[in-house]
Design a protein that fits this description.
Layout (H helix, E strand, L loop, with lengths): L1 H20 L37 H4 L3 H13 L1 H22 L5 E11 L5 E16 L4 H67 L5 H36 L31 H5 L1 H22 L4 E12 L11 E10 L7 H67 L5 H35 L5
Antiparallel strand pairs: 1-2, 2-3, 3-4
Helix pairs in contact: 3-5, 4-5, 5-6, 5-8, 5-10, 6-10, 8-9, 9-10
């Protein structure tokens, strides 16, 4: 009967220990509501439902130009910022493994020797050898488990940070390559314009020398030629800057075949695949930076559990098993083996408000993480909305500027023809030259903005990895 009672008490004690071991003070996590509209501005509600997400389109499928795909591939292999992001994952993974190891005891092989004089001038010796376990915390209240969850969330956040870094890298390489392409096009345009103005200057000087043109016509022709020379130097500098930026992103000197995007003629083939906008709710699961912010929020939430557990007793266990002897030669003889077991429980009584301040700090940290998570969603919503606004209007702007450039080219041809036939003044020719050059520059810049907007939309929707 007594044995049954002891067995029952032992079982109850074991169940109590198991219950305490499974205790956790981490608040139940609930994802905050997205502080954005259910659909994009100007979109018909529900019109994007069922569309595939942009994140499902790999960057190699989004980019249709073979040279640009090769550049992006080189950048992913060699870019130093992306390499740091990958190494950060390894560092945080190691920190998580350290926290996970805290839940298990650490065994050490220990050997000690102690010689001490006594009051009767004799010397006593004690030698020990064996296995030792020091201060293993029995995590009854989930403090160590909460810290492990914090480390796990930080590790997962570092994974998302790497994906976000790759997304930014893909977009940066594409945008910079487009800028280099536009710089080449503007450089060729400026060179053609300069050649035209130099021809016009020679003709005007010849007419001036023969009394058929005024000094004003000559000075205006010289001014336009000098302006074209200045623009040429500016475009050469801009191209060099774009090339340097692209080289930095790629992380190595550019291959000769990739350093010069074909700019002799504007290709009619699209450089990028069209991507669907989807729904704003897709961003919560598709954009790496939002997922990173959510993992940081989960970690801040778990940190509250560790702060709460600090109010409860911290139970640790120190133990050893081995052999002990007063003589080193007798250390491993029979009868010298034994063990020690020293549990310790510490209950905070007075800490000058340290634990309370730790809990307040953890709660404030969670509120900060909530605000950062919501800000990440709002920023993503704005980026997508801006890119969609550009997609809706830049196409029409490009068509209008193309029509304007065609009209200005015809106007310049007619003005030059009228001037050579003595019907119009040279001022009309100069004005037509300036307008044509400005319109062609604006056309190239608008085409660049439209292509970069396609890249920005793909990035904003969570693509790029």
């Amino acid at each position: 009967m007594i044995f049954s009672s002891l067995k029952l008490r032992g079982s109850a004690l074991a169940l109590a220990v198991l219950a305490l071991a499974g205790c956790s003070f981490i608040p139940t996590y609930e994802r905050p509501a997205a502080p954005v509209a259910a659909d994009w501005p100007g979109a018909v509600p529900g019109s994007a439902a069922g569309s595939p997400a942009a994140a499902e389109i790999a960057w190699s499928d989004f980019v249709t130009d073979a040279r640009l795909r090769e550049l992006i591939g080189l950048a992913i292999q060699n870019n130093r910022d992306l390499r740091v992001a990958v190494l950060n994952i390894e560092q945080v993974r190691a920190q998580y493994q350290i926290r996970r190891a805290d839940r298990f005891p650490t065994l050490n092989l220990a050997a000690t020797g102690n010689r001490q004089s006594s009051t009767d001038d004799s010397i006593t010796s004690v030698y020990t050898a064996g296995l030792a376990m020091s201060s293993w915390e029995l995590d009854f209240f989930g403090r160590v488990a909460s810290l492990k969850e914090v480390a796990l969330a930080q590790y997962l956040a570092s994974e998302e940070a790497r994906k976000a870094a790759q997304t930014s890298l893909v977009a940066s390489v594409a945008s910079t390559w487009l800028s280099l392409q536009a710089s080449d096009e503007l450089l060729a345009l400026t060179q053609r314009t300069l050649a035209t103005r130099q021809d016009s200057l020679r003709l005007t000087k010849l007419r001036f020398d023969n009394g058929a043109a005024s000094a004003l016509d000559l000075r205006q022709a010289e001014s336009l030629t000098a302006a074209a020379e200045s623009a040429l130097a500016q475009q050469q500098r801009q191209r060099a800057l774009d090339l340097n930026a692209l080289t930095l992103l790629v992380g190595q000197p550019l291959p000769a075949s990739l350093a010069d995007p074909a700019s002799e003629a504007v290709t009619t083939q699209p450089l990028f695949r069209e991507v669907p906008a989807g729904l704003p709710s897709d961003l919560l699961t598709r954009r790496a930076d939002i997922r990173q912010a959510e993992q940081q929020l989960i970690g801040a939430n778990a940190n509250i559990g560790a702060a709460r557990a600090a109010f409860f007793p911290r139970i640790s266990l120190t133990a050893s098993v081995g052999t002990a002897s007063s003589a080193l030669s007798d250390l491993f003889k029979d009868g010298s083996w034994g063990f020690t077991l020293a549990p310790q429980a510490l209950l905070p009584i007075f800490d000058a408000g340290r634990n309370q301040a730790g809990l307040a700090s953890a709660k404030a940290g969670r509120e900060i993480a909530v605000a950062q998570y919501e800000k990440a969603i709002q920023s993503a919503f704005r980026e997508v909305a801006d890119a969609l606004a550009g997609r809706a209007t830049l196409g029409e702007q490009l068509r209008a500027q193309q029509a304007q450039a065609t009209a200005e080219a015809e106007r310049f041809r007619l003005a030059e023809l009228r001037y050579r036939n003595g019907v119009a003044s040279f001022l009309d020719v100069l004005d037509a030259q300036r307008s044509l050059f400005a319109t062609q520059q604006a056309l190239t810049q608008t085409r660049l903005v439209q292509q970069q907007n396609q890249v920005a939309l793909y990035k904003a929707l969570g693509g790029g990895y």
